[in-house]
Every structure is written in C-alpha cells, then in structure tokens.
TrEMBL record, chains A, D:
SUPFAM superfamilies: Thiamin diphosphate-binding fold (THDP-binding). The keyword Oxidoreductase applies. This is 2-oxoacid:ferredoxin oxidoreductase subunit beta. Gene3D superfamilies: 3.40.50.970. Keywords: Oxidoreductase. Signal peptide: none annotated.
From TrEMBL, chains B, C:
Residues 436-457 are annotated as: Disordered. GO terms for molecular function: oxidoreductase activity, acting on the aldehyde or oxo group of donors. Residues 14-178 form the Pyruvate/ketoisovalerate oxidoreductase catalytic domain. PANTHER family: 2-OXOGLUTARATE OXIDOREDUCTASE SUBUNIT KORA, PYRUVATE-FLAVODOXIN OXIDOREDUCTASE-RELATED. NCBIfam families: OAFO_sf. It comes from Phaeovibrio sulfidiphilus. InterPro entries: 2-oxoacid/accept_OxRdtase_asu, Pyruvate:ferred/Flavod_OxRd, Pyrv/ketoisovalerate_OxRed_cat, Pyrv_Fd/Flavodoxin_OxRdtase_N, Pyrv_flavodox_OxRed_cen, THDP-binding, Transketo_C/PFOR_II, Transketolase_C. Residues 223-454 form the Pyruvate flavodoxin/ferredoxin oxidoreductase pyrimidine binding domain. The keyword Coiled coil does not apply. Residues 478-540 form the Transketolase C-terminal domain. This is 2-oxoacid:acceptor oxidoreductase subunit alpha. GO terms for biological process: response to oxidative stress.
C-alpha cells in the first residue's frame, strides 16, 4: 500500500508543452519525488506558478495548483499559506517571471518568510515569448532581436539578492543532477520559512549552449547559517556552484492573533 | 416650532482642534436621541493644517449635507477660501467669528450671511489651559439645545483616555462656550435656535442603542458579516480605514490581515486566500484598483470569489485623494481586458455599507466571481449616527463538490454557470486553476468550442443569478424618476422630499447592483416615468453612458452630473428635475 | 476563366516545415504579381509543435481569409483537430493527403471535401536530403500556376542564408512536388486549378516594388514615421514583433529602445521619454495593458503625449495568447480610473497599420494625450503583400512655449484645451508635471474651480481636435451598413462584395478613430441607412455597447459578434445582413 | 553675476505641505546647494518623484520636475535620461515609494546603471497615508492600526539590497548633517551611473522618537570600490553609519547605436 507515495502519483496526465530536452522536465520529476519521499498527500499541496514555459509546471503535478499570471506567483502563494497554514505551499516559475516582473514580490517574500518553497527554473532567457533576454542573461548575449547587441546590463545575482533580502533558506541546483535537485527540494519544503531553490534549467531551444552547463556545475556548498560566510561564497561564485548556500532558523511569519470575540462584542464598539 | 434638522460647520487652522469638537458634537447629538452626519474637510498639509468639520444633525437619519449651512463657527480664518465651496452659506446663515482674528474675509462676506462676533479665543483664555475648540463646541451645543450633561458625557468618552485634568479643563471651557450662546441667540433669533424636535435620550439605552460609525468601518463590519476571514492590505486614502478596522477585528474571529508590498501583491494574496477556501477581500481606491485589474481578470477566468471595496476619490491619476467623486465607475465596470464578466455593487449610504458589504461577499461566493464594491470618500470617511442594522440571515455558501468526485471537472459547463469548486485539502478533486482558457477539466485549450462554452458559462452565472430585490432601493411614485447610486442617494432623497413637498411626485431609484444591470427590473421600476434624471458625481457622465449602453430608455433622460470635490446639492437636482436647462436629453 | 483569388492551407507536425513553405509560397505569389495574406496557426507547444499556414492569394489586395479553403495540403495528420475550425473545408474543397500517413481523420471527412492522395513523404525521399515541405510547396505552387523560376527565386531569398546545398536540394524537391500536380489537377479539375488572372511580374520591379510585411512590422514603421524616437519594451505575444522591429530601426534614426523589467516600468519610461521631449511609445497586449492603466491615467492628468499599441489576443486573463480577438476594447476605452479622456485608434488592416501608426503619434503629440492604438493578432502576426504606402506628409508638432515666457503656465486653460508644453532644457519655463489635480501653473489644487477647469480642458482638447476624414474608412452606398473596426474590416468588405453581387447595396464603415466617437460624422455616414450591422470579434458585444452609450442610432441595429479564436467569416455577415436571426435589435 | 548659482534660485516658491520639523526640509535644502555648487542650470535638471510626503519634493525645486505616481519614479526618471542624456536627472521619494511598491524598479535601476541620482528619504513609515509600517519599520513597531502588534517582518536593508543588485554608488546621510548630505548629493550627481543616497529623514509626526536619530548617527564610511568590504561594512552596520559606502567606476548604461540610415533605406527591407 506504499504506492500511495509513489512519485508517479504526483504527476498529472497532462502532456507538457515543453521542448524535448528542456531542463524543466527534471524539475517536475524532482518535485514529484520530493513530495513522495516526504509523504505529503497530493490534496494537501498547493502548487502556484506564474507565466512562462517553466510556469506551466503547476498543471503537470497532480496536486492542487494555480497557474496564475506573469510575475505574481509569490503573493498568490503567500495568500494561500497565510489563509491555510495547514497546506504545503510550493511556488515555481522562471527567471523572467521571478526576477524581472516579479522582482518586488521576490524581495518581500524573502523578508516576510512565509513558510513556503519557491523553485526558480533559471534559463537566462524568456523561453515562452521566444527568446528575449532575462535579468540573468549575460550583458553581451546577442540572441534576441530586442537587444541585438545584448542587454548591456550585468545579470542579476538572484542568490545575493535573496540573501540581502533576508531569505531564510537559499540553495542552487542543476537539472542534470536529479538526486541533488530532489534533495534540495525536500530540504526546502521541510525548512520552516521561505525557501528559495535556484535551479539552473537549460533552455535547449533558445540557449542551446546551455547544454554545456553539465560541464560547468560543481557541487560546492554545505549549509551555513552565517550570513557573512554566505556572502563570501557568493562573492567567489562563478554562477555554477550548487548545494545549500544558507539556512537561517528564524521562525516563519505568522499573522497577528487575538482573543476570540463574538460578532456582538465586535459590534458593541459602535454603540453610543 | 423646533427644526427637524440643521447644518453646522466648525473651521480653524492647524492645532485648533475643530475636528475633535465636531466629533464630540456628533456624539452628543447621538446621546441626545438625534441622528447626524459629519464630514471632515482638510487642507493639503500632511498634518495640522486648517480643517473643517461639517455636520448635519436631525430627528431622522441623515445621509446628505443639504443645501445650506445654518451656522459657521470660525475659530480663525486660516485659508478659509479652501472651504468656501464646501460650506454653503447664504443670507439665512449665521457666521460666528472671533473679532480678534481680523476682518471677516471677502469670500465669506460675499455670501451675505449674518455675522455675530464672539471673542472665542479670549473666552478660552479665561480658563487656564482652556482650548478654543471647546468654546466653539459649547456655543454650537448650546445653540443646538443640547443638555450640558450629555455633552459632558461625550467629552468624557472622547478625551477620557488622555487625563482627567484635560477633561475637567475641557468641561469648564465648554461651559464658558455655552454661556456665550445666549448673546448670539438674541442677535439672530430666527437662525440661531437650532434645537431639533426630539432631544430625548436615544431609544432604549440598554440593548437597542444607536451606532456611530464611519462608512469605512461599516464596510468592514458588513464584509466580516459576509464571512470574509482573510484580507490583504495596502494603505491608500480614503480606503485605509476599512483595512484598519478589519486589522483589529479579523484576528478576533480567527481571521488574518496581511500588509502587502503593493496592490499587485495584495490582490494576488486575496486570490490565493480565496482559492484556498477562505472568503477574502481587500479595499483600495482608484490608483490601487488600476494596479489590480490584471489580477481581477485572472479571478474572472479562474473563477475565484473575492471582494474589492473601492472607495472612490477625485481622479484621474492621483487627482484629489482626500475628496469624493464617483469617477471610478468606468474602470470598475470595464477596466478588465478581454471579456470579463464580474459584479459591481455600490453602497447607498453609511448604513447601507453594512448591507452591501455583506451582500457583496455573498454574491462573490455564490457566483465564484470577483465583486467590486464601490463606496466613496464622502461616505467612507464621514461618520453617521444610524439605527443598527442586523446582519442579513442569508448564508454565504460556496458550491463545492463531494470528495473523490469521479472525473471531477472544476469548470464543468453547468446550467447555472456555477461549477463546484474544490478546496485544497479535499481528497480526489485536485485541479489546477488557470487564467489560460481551458476545458471543463481546467486544461489549457485554444479550441473555439471550449472558449465559447467557458465565456458563455462565465457570463451566464452572473446574468442568471437571482439578485432578488436588493438590486436597487426604490421609493416614491410619479412621472419623474431620480436615478442614482452611492453617496448621492441621500442627496437625491432629500431633493425628492423637496419636490414632493412642492406637489411634484417623484420616485428615487438608487442602484445597489450596477453590474449586471437588471434591465427588466429597471424597466418595471421606470414604468410610467416620463422623465429620468441620471444623477452622478463625475465629469464625463459615466453612469449615464453605461445605462444607455445597456438599457433602452423610453422616458426622456436628463443628466445631472458634476465632478467632485463639492457634493451635488439637493437643490441642483430639484432644479434639474423641474427645468430642462442642466442636462442633455436622450 | 481564371480565378481572382484562392485560399490554401498547409499543415503538418513539428519539424515538417510547413511555415517555411507557406512563407515561400506567399513570397512567390508576390513575385508573380499577386497579392496575398498568410496567417500562422500554431499548437500549444513552445516550439516545433504542429502548425498550419493559411494563405489567401489573389489579383487584388487581400485582407480576409474568406469563407472556405480551396485546398488543404496535409503533410501529416498530427493534431489536425486543433486546426479544424480555422481551416474551413466543404464539398468544394480539395484535401491532398499522404496515403502513408494513415486514414483521413473523421474531423476532415465530416466536411466531405474531395480527397486526392499523393505520397508526399515518399516523393521527398526520392531526393537525397529532400524535405516534405518542399513537395507540398511544389504542389501548391504548381496548382497556383506559379512559374518555377519565380518560386526558385523565393526559395533562394528564404533559404539562401543557410547554404547553397540546402537551396539546391530544395529546388530539386520543389520540382518533384510540382510534377505531382498534374495528377492532382486531373483528379479534381474544377477545384485544383488555382491559377489567378494576373500572374505578370509585380509592377515596376525597380522603384515601385510591392511590400511583404507583417502588421506588427507595419505598425513599427508607421510609428517611426510618426516621429517616435524612444521605445521602452516588455515582450508579450502577439506584440513582441512591433518592439523587435523598432529595436532594429530606432538606432538607425538616432533613437533608442530599452527593455524594461515589466510593463509598469516600460510605460513609465515612455512617460519620462516624452516628458523629456522625445516622442515615445510602447507596444503590448491585454495583460500588459492592464498593468499600464494607472500610468496612462497619469499621462492624461499630466498631459503627456505617448502611444501604446495594444495587439489584441484572446482574453480574459492569459486567455489564448496566440489567437486573435477584439475583446480589449473595453479596457482601452474605459480602463482608466477617474475621468480620463484619451484617444483610441484602430488600424483596419496590415497596410493601414502604416497609416494608423503614424497618425496615432501625430494625434498624441498634437493633443498631448496618450493614444491607445488597437490592432489584433490576426493583423499583427499575419503577413501580407501590399501596395507600398507613402508616409503622410503631415508633420508631428508639439505645441511649445517660447523660452522665458513670463509667468509660464504649463496647464494654461486655453480655448483649444491644448497648452504649450515646455521641454526640459528650455530656459525660463521650468515646471513640475503632476498627476495631482493642479492649477494652470501646475501646482497641486483641491479647489473645485481648478478641477472643473482642468477636466473641461482635458476633455475639450480631445473633442475639439480636427480629425479630418481619417476617423473612418467608408465605402459604398445603400440602406444597409456594416459598421466595424480592426481586422474585421477586410471581412466586412468581402461580405459587402458578395452582397453587392447579389444586388444588395451596402456601405462599409470601418472606424479608425474609436474614441472620441465622431457622432456627427457617423450620423452623416449613416444617413439613409435602415439597418446597421455592428460587427466585432468578442463575446460581450463591447463595440455595440460602446456605440450605444454615445450614439443614438436611428436605424435598426443588429449585432454580429463572436469571440475568437476563429475569425468571423464573410458569409456570417452576409447572413446577418439579410436575415434577422443572428442579432438583437435596438 | 554669481547669483545665478545661488541655492535660493533652486527652490520654487511653493510652500511645502510638510509638518514643521520634518526631515525632508533639509533634503530640498541640500539638493539646492548641491546643484548650485555644481553649477548645473535649473532648466537642465529633471527632478522626478513618486507619491508620499517626501515625493512632494520635486515641486519644491525650481528645476523641471515630475511628481508621478506611487512607486514609479525610477522608471520615469530612466526614461528621461535615456531619451535625453544631456539632462541631469534626479529621482527622489520615500521608503514606501522606493522599497515597497517601487522595489522592483529599485532592483533593476541598480543593475541597469542609468546615469542618475536617487535620493530616498527614509523615515521608516508611510507618512502621507498617516502612519503605517514601511519596509524599513522595525518588526515590532506597533504604531499603526494596520499592524497593531508590528509588521512582524524584519526591516529591509536597502543598502545591502542595492549592493546585491549591483548599484554603482551607495551612500547614507542624515538630515541633521546638512553639509554631509549636500556633499553626498554632489558626489552622487557627479558619479557616472546610478547613485543611491539613502537619507535618514525623521518623520516627527508619526515617528516622533526619530528626533533621537541625531544621537545615534555616526560618520563612518569613506568610499571603497571593493564589494566584499562594502558587504562587510553592512554586516556590521547598526543602521546609523553614514558616509559613502561604495563606488564602482563601471560605465553607465547606454542604449545601442547603429549606423544612420534614411527612412527609405529602412523601408527597403520590406520590398519584394
Ligand atoms: C503582464 C505580462 N507581460 C508579459 C507577458 C508575456 N510573457 C509570458 S511568459 C514571459 C517570460 C517568461 O520567461 P521566464 O519566466 O524566464 O520563463 P521561461 O519561459 O523562460 O521558462 C513573458 C514576458 C505576460 N504573459 N504577461
Ligand atoms: C497605487 C497607490 N497605492 C497607494 C497609494 C497611497 N499612498 C500614498 S503615499 C504612500 C506611502 C508613502 O510612504 P513613503 O514613500 O515612505 O513616503 P513618506 O510619506 O513617508 O515620505 C501610499 C501608500 C497611492 N498613492 N497609490
Ligand atoms: S523554449 Fe526553452 S524553456 Fe521553453 S520549453 Fe523549450 S527548451 Fe524549455
Ligand atoms: S507626516 Fe512625517 S514625513 Fe510627512 S511631512 Fe509630516 S513629519 Fe514629514
Ligand atoms: Mg526563463
Ligand atoms: Mg516614508
């Protein structure tokens, strides 16, 4: 009867729209494994995403899901978790969704520390809209007609920003290492507070050179709770170090509580 | 013969405390068994600038400021021209001025009121630590015929949290002010006796006590009654008090309020909370609503119930944040991209915020739709003494499937258009909500059939719902109809009284449900009407245009529209109803 | 007798290359002296899914796909049901199928077309490295009577940047395909001869060459001609190509394009660029427009000229991003909070994107107002062969004050409603633009007088502008009028031809200026009309409702509305024009 | 004739709506001095702000100005500068405007490095809307009815975020030290690229305890171009260190250029 927690059960039967070879296939596989390993029942998971190739992922899980709008996965997910603390809440999306249009929510989700896990599939490109530069594209990446000589802006450093914004869990994985990716997702879900899993997830269509990521990534980080050390690691980072970068055990956000009162008691305030 | 109501204004520069005086006066009126309404008007300074408290007090519930102001007590003249439009004085008004504050300014003199000089500041100075606002309060209270003990109670209630010393000094100053009233009354006896018919204590001081509250607080309570247990907030004038009230109340009933980083976040949090099964809302005003429209479209497509209360202020853009207008009607009705049927309600007055707040939540939950509830600054930030309103007994129920429904279709094409909505945690019904067009299963679809079916169903559920009688508040008979919504309802009702008194029978139709427009009901309500005045507080006649887009008037249509910040006066409506000058016709 | 036009579709799974084949076919048509239109339809896969190239080719300019498809060449049957609605087959259609790809699917058979089997893949395999799309191309080109040399030119132009080897193989495969046409033609002679009257080379291959371009590129060029030199961009389907085209062109004329972090940023960058004196624009689609409405309101209040081109797609919410609809009309007209008069234009076809793009910039600059220019996916992402259109000679001029104007009033209340706008750098005219309501000097004001004056002036400048004849494209006479806008214009014109051929005279009125509605002009254009068909591609009849809100029809009004993704067909309009079944009446 | 560059000339005659004692008075004074000292003519300055008490500042200068909408000063200012590189562009606003609703633009303005100066008047409160918590309010600040037990979120660290987002100039000043504030603004304007001047600017009305800032601030930082050192300084920061934190000489953003072409040449692409 153990089959209830079989990773297969966490996949929906909807066929992904993704290109063959897209890194995102590994991410849905890893999520399914992580949920199965953690024995979290499908119906107790809310999986929220934005818009982009990667954001299609919510519909490929058999949990409750919400494929929302571009850039707003995090506040939608926060709303779910604060209203229903009993649910396991996952949010996911792309580098454009999360760091470009969604950058403000990313900043504030880090500091708010609502207990949920955010998985960003970073391919340094807008896949869904056919290949424009994203905030993590190299300043001189000339692959888009919108920026034919490159965006001319240094790529954003998502982990530095997360750390500066006081995220309590930060890690980086690569879709080519399913075991480590699964491990990080499990660890992130188990972490009490906001957890960011930054996933290097190649776009084989608009960034075919990312197939070479497998030769560049290196397992590097083991968890530290020391911010200075975590910053130091990032200052030395080549962008391909993987592992758990930082864990801060501070308690997650909880809204204010008060002694219960009846409606009549509440209304009494208005009486003259 | 005692009056049935009067208007009175208190003005003064920063620090003079006229708002506090106005507040206590309204409370004292309530404690005297009267009803009342108080509007605050402020200068542009962030804090401590000049201000005006404008009150109307009477023996019946008040929801309009009327046409003229009987008495103005001016503690000083700082920037009085800022309020000149809002305090309508004429030859029948009395202005009480402090001779030590210099000449009465031309903007006041031009209106030819009677003027009585009282050395307000000097009187205050007779009491060590005495403040001039208590002199003004005393004067006003005495002219209104309030019992000193009752006013003292109100002072205690208002200032008691400071110190007993402050209260004692205030009471002493109050008495000095009341004492000065005799001279004033003798100077202008016809005006200065404001005493209203009933000044018995409020009925049944035990159980059935009247309420004194702002429209924004009333909205908060209505929405709480509707069952909302989650609110995400971003402050904005003049909606913040809805959120502040809920911040205090929600935790008491097991709910939560979260302050978000912006309105994009707050509305998405609300969508998330509601998706998770908890009735959810937020409140905002024009600029914030603008930021929410994309997500409201998501809520339409993904069929997520929620309420956004939009407290309208002067527009466009940042506009006039502290003043009222009804110019967000267009965006509330039509501001969503794509074909996005949803519901728009409007509260008719402060008391009705209780009903409309509750009803809006019920509609949202019953139809799984976003509801935009419109109120406005004139209603939201004003305070009124009202008869308490019981919560409507109607339950808020979301249609849910049974657990383990085989082949569960979240967006099943049903006759009613409403499909059972599974709540996370329910076994065997997991689905993915989507803003992409989808099949009944919720799977993304670009097929013409699915698009048509889902568009039909989303439109049908809104059209087919049984809204009962609540779609409008209607009273009166006659061939002239005053058609309006929001805080102009009280003004229209007052105009109707005047017209009736002149032998012109009129009906007042105040729409509470703006969208969908109940065309059949409206047609019935307009049966026998020859002339319809469409009354609204905005520049481009948004209400009229909307009505015409959806409804074929048989009667002659006259527009009675004016932008903010000064409210439309009953007399303007009376004039428009009886002449042809003001508006265009159909 | 040779035909004057024909429709043809090519379909196939990912990788089959039918889009390339369609593209080359259109180019070959152009090189043969014909006009044409090609629409791409794609499956949901991000890349390489099944696709359809739908072409209409003829002797006169083409801006509608017509009612039926004469020939479908199906390279295979992968997910053909996805396109079934978009490729209208009937008994008079010919389907060319590859017998090796299995049975003809029921969705095709159900439409009873003639079917001819050609072993497309096997034929391709006769050429080493040969691809099946070139067989399909050859077949189609031969049926269309195109000269092999002309098609070869088009292949060279399209594939030349790859390698000569690819070109050579393609040419060889093409010939194999053309060879297979004879058999097909003999099987269904009445249908399969697609050759159109004129197949002379395009007129004057030297100077006056025809153009082949997409609506989005045409919009880009129109806007560049209008004088825009600054663009801020955030990609979104189906508007991205407008931005991509401008990204290449702007630097060549000394302008700049910046990719922004989101639409809130892009529209504010545009406001900044324009405030700084540089005509500025952006392009987006529904969800992006939603995010821009707050800032558009700022541009209204602060009187900043700018153009937003909104390329409409299926809504609400994320909707159907790759398909066309005209459902963003409401938000374009009414999506701004407060009273926010602005201009909304709509291009009538691909060629008109050139004119309307330029005109929109001119209107924005002349009136210092935001202009929302509507196009749609069906126009933006389609490609057409058109007669080149010269830039309009009209200049784009912003009214500026002289330097050192004494007591310069940025928001002076003028008769025209337009006030001289100083540009940073001009001496002695510095001012602060503001979204708060303001005095003529631009100082924040909460006064009723200033609010009324500024509201009046902002409305007046839009109403009083002389729009000339460009407000609509009108043709024909008669008691029936077809009233429409956007990409349905071509469809309506085609329906009108059919009606006229049947002896029913009709006029077609395509609005290019949606807001302000030229009610007097429209009244004149409708003189003598008994029946008006209001034709639009959306569910809730937004265009009709808008017209009714603002215009009093004297004629009977019939709605001809349907949502996307399938375009309205000429025959539907013909039916609606001649029966009473389809629509509701006024 | 030197009076042309008199600070008085840089002030408009509009009376500020600010409360007596508000820190923001010093900021307009410092800006006027800085512009006068730098001899930049009024008409060559575009001063852009958002919405809030502090954002009213644009109208109190006699330069060209734009009092835009809440949170959008930075993209509006970027638009001005990219379209008109000849102008001196200043942006200003509050902690709510800049770090709450405007957080995403802040992130991306830092990395985009358009040559302009951003002055944030941080009072750890929403003054304009009568005293709610801002992102820099303390987690346990109970002064607002909206968060009666405090926002329960650690305050954002604007300088850490700016550094992580790759701002090229970062400094902090206090309104009580007009000379240093003026110096920083001058330095920031002279810096080629995006410069952030973080100003501790007390709100005497809703945060009266901030009158005590004067006893807490300390002049501390001299410019460094070493990111590691700058991060280190911030890890030790008590929030009241002032001075120039970090300066990076990388070149400012410039949009792509191309060889000039006539319209006819551009149109020729469409001819068949
Ligand atoms: C408001 C809005 N703006 C723009 C878009 C268009 N859009 C869809 S996905 C996308 C970017 C996706 O990039 P990313 O998040 O990196 O996902 P990927 O496709 O690379 O996985 C954009 C710009 C949109 N849907 N909504
Ligand atoms: C879209 C939008 N949301 C909300 C508001 C209301 N609002 C005006 S100013 C402000 C906060 C101001 O705080 P801050 O930027 O810190 O400036 P301060 O007043 O403290 O100087 C808010 C929330 C608005 N004007 N627009
Ligand atoms: S386009 Fe790129 S990101 Fe999108 S599905 Fe294909 S490979 Fe993946
Ligand atoms: S409320 Fe605070 S920030 Fe606003 S003007 Fe007053 S002191 Fe300054
Ligand atoms: Mg990406
Ligand atoms: Mg602040």
């Amino acid at each position: 009867m153990n089959t209830e927690f079989d990773p297969k059960n966490y996949r929906s039967d909807l066929k992904p729209v993704w290109c063959p070879g897209c890194g995102d296939y590994s991410v849905i596989a890893a999520i399914a494994r992580a949920l199965a390993n953690l024995k979290i029942r499908q119906e107790n998971v809310a999986f929220i995403s934005g818009i982009g190739c990667s954001s299609r992922i919510a519909a490929y899980a058999s949990t409750y899901g919400f494929h929302g709008i571009h850039g707003r996965a995090l506040p939608l997910a926060s709303g779910v978790k604060v209203a229903r603390p009993d649910l396991t809440v996952l949010a996911a999306g792309g580098d454009g969704d999360g760091f470009s249009i969604g950058g403000n929510h990313f900043l504030h989700a880090c500091r708010r520390n609502v207990d949920m896990t955010y998985i960003v599939m970073d391919n340094s490109v807008y896949g869904m809209t056919k290949g424009q530069a994203s905030p993590t594209s190299e300043a001189d990446w000339c692959g888009s007609k919108l920026t034919p000589e490159g965006p001319s802006i240094p790529p954003i450093q998502p982990l530095e920003v997360a750390l500066a914004a006081q995220a309590s869990y930060v890690s980086r994985a690569f879709t080519g290492d399913l075991a480590e990716l699964t491990r990080q997702i499990e660890e992130a879900i188990s972490h009490k507070g906001f957890s960011l899993v930054h996933v290097l997830s190649p776009c084989v269509t608009y960034r075919p050179e990312q197939r070479g990521y497998k030769d560049r990534v290196h397992q590097e980080w083991t968890p530290t709770s020391n911010r200075a050390e975590a910053f130091q690691r990032l200052l030395e980072d080549d962008g391909f170090a993987t592992g758990t970068l930082f864990v801060d055990p501070r308690p997650p956000y909880t809204p204010m509580t008060a002694a219960p009162a009846s409606m009549a008691e509440i209304e009494a305030d208005f009486a003259i | 013969m005692a009056k049935t109501c009067f208007s009175l204004a208190l003005t003064g520069s920063g620090g003079a405390g006229v708002m506090t005086a106005g507040q206590i006066l309204l409370d004292a009126a309530a404690r005297s068994g009267l009803y009342g309404l108080m509007v605050r008007s402020l200068g542009p300074q962030i804090r401590g600038g000049e201000s005006a408290a404008i009150l109307r007090i009477g023996t019946a519930p008040v929801s309009s400021l009327g046409d003229t102001c009987s008495v103005l007590v001016a503690v000083d003249w700082g920037n009085i021209e800022r309020f000149a439009d809002e305090i309508p004085l004429d030859e029948n008004s009395l202005v009480i001025a402090d001779p030590d504050q210099g000449e009465v300014p031309p903007v006041i003199v031009a209106k030819s009121p009677k003027i009585a000089f009282v050395p307000l500041k000097a009187l205050a100075d007779t009491v060590p630590g005495g403040r001039v606002n208590m002199i003004a309060l005393g004067l006003a209270a005495a002219l209104a015929g309030f019992d000193e003990a009752v006013v003292a109670e109100a002072i205690q209630a208002s200032l008691g949290r400071k110190s007993q010393e402050v209260v004692d000094i205030s009471l002493q100053t109050l008495r000095a002010g009341m004492g000065a009233a005799t001279a004033v009354r003798s100077e202008a006896p016809e005006i200065a006796d404001l005493a209203c018919g009933c000044s018995a204590p409020a009925p049944d001081n035990g159980k059935h006590r009247r309420w004194l509250l702002s429209g924004n607080a009333a909205t908060g309570l209505g929405i709480l009654r509707g069952g909302v247990r989650y609110c995400a907030a971003y402050p904005i004038t003049p909606a913040t008090e809805v959120l502040e009230w809920l911040a205090g109340a929600l935790p008491k009933v097991g709910g939560a309020l979260v302050q978000a980083e912006d309105e994009l976040a707050s509305i998405n949090m609300v969508v998330g909370g509601s998706f998770a099964g908890i009735p959810s809302m937020t409140a905002t005003s024009g600029p914030g609503l603008s930021l929410m429209v994309e997500t409201l479209g998501l809520a339409v497509a993904a069929e997520i119930p929620l309420v956004v209360c939009n407290v309208m202020r002067g527009g466009p853009s940042t506009g006039i944040p502290t003043k009222s207008e009804q110019s967000d009607l267009n965006i509330a009705l039509f501001g969503l991209h794509g074909d996005a049927p949803h519901v728009v309600t409007a509260a008719t007055d402060i008391r009705d915020c209780l009903f409309t707040g509750q009803w809006s939540v019920q509609l949202a939950e019953a139809m799984q739709t976003p509801v935009i509830m419109l109120t406005d600054q004139a209603m939201g930030q004003a305070q009124a003494v009202i008869e308490p309103l019981e919560a409507s007994p109607q339950k808020t129920e979301r249609l849910v499937p049974s657990e383990n429904t085989p082949n569960y279709q979240r967006y099943a094409v049903t006759n009613s258009g409403v499909s059972p909505m599974a709540i996370p945690g329910m076994k065997g019904c997991a689905y993915t909500a989507d803003g992409l067009e989808h099949s009944p299963l919720g799977r993304p679809s670009t097929q013409a059939r699915d698009h048509q079916d889902q568009l039909d169903k989303r439109a049908r559920k809104i059209e087919a719902h049984d809204y009962g009688d609540a779609w409008a508040d209607i009273d009166g008979e006659g061939e002239i109809a005053l058609l309006t919504f929001g805080s102009l309802t009280g003004v229209a009702r007052e105009a109707a009284e005047t017209l009736r008194a002149r032998g012109v029978p009129v009906r007042v139709i105040a729409l509470r449900l703006l969208m969908p427009l109940r065309t059949e009901d409206l047609k019935r309500a307009l049966q026998g009407v020859r002339r319809v005045l469409v009354i609204e507080q905005n520049h481009s006649r948004q209400f009229l245009a909307y009505l015409k887009s959806t409804f074929d008037f048989e009667a002659e249509v006259v527009s009675c529209a004016r932008p903010g910040p000064v409210p439309i006066r009953p007399q303007e409506i009376v004039t428009a109803a009886t002449s042809r000058d003001m508006g265009d016709t159909k």
